[in-house]
Write a structure and sequence with these properties.
The protein has about 130 residues and is mostly beta strands. The chain is built from no helices and eleven strands. A hairpin with a 4-residue loop joins strand 7 (about 70-75) and strand 8 (about 80-85).
Length: about 130
Amino acid sequence: QVQLVESGGGLVQAGDSLRLSCAASGRTDGSNTVAWFRQSPGQEREFLAALVVSLFGSSPYYGDSMKGRAAISRDSAKNTVFLHMNSLKPEDTAIYYCAFRAAALSVGVLTGVQKYDYWGQGTQVTVSP
């Protein structure tokens, strides 16, 4: 079992930056993939970024919606993955979720919601004009 807790969301203004955190606990050792998604009302959950950890190291991957404005990183000692976002826009308003899979997912499948076994409760990000 893996537990994920997101934090760092809030109300910001357009152009601001924000750092979201995803603290993981439980069986997180070994190869794995941690991803960030977001979901707006009436919209499907959208892939933002993923960090694939394997014996060879860690590799970041990004979706198109925030490419160039987001960076994913981790603090291994704290078992926490971060999503750094800048130049935020009102259309970035959504609930942001982190997700975990106990496997190093390939680039062709890591954007899929169904590929992740564990999800956090989400953190709300609201960007005002």
